[in-house]
Amino acid sequence: MAIINIEIKAKSNNQKEIRNILKSKNAVFKGIDHQTDTYFKVNSGRLKLREGKIENHLIYYQRADTKGPTQSDVILYKSNPDSSLKEILIKSLGVLVVVEKKREIYFINNVKFHIDTVGSLGSFVEIEAIDDSGVRSKDELLDQCRFYLDLFKISKTDLIPDSYSDLILK
Question: Could you tell me the pTM of the whole model?
Fold first, then answer.
């Protein structure tokens, strides 16, 4: 399934306030997931296997590493946690890095919110304005992302261009 999303990632010390805002906007809380993302060595883009209780996907994506709302082109494959997929990927591609995180997952319509705690990296918030059906324009997704950036009072200095894998590798 091909997906376009506009996303941001930011350091966050106000997770409680963000939770309260999400609740006030009647966000749908999907739960808390303990996720392991295994990134594989690939020639272009990023390929990761996400293993959790809520989300289990093989995810390939390409995204420029820029601060602020950034487009990601994503191909998503729902994986079975009991399959041999991880072993095949490890043996054929090799592991680049593993990211362990605790993730709170919320939705408001097509916008997904993550409140993350990542190992030694700290606390973060992610906003993803998602189009998985071809009905929303890139400008609409950008507007949605900017709206929540402002609503959460996320400072431009807190925006992070890198994936968690890149931050761990630095």
Answer: 0.91
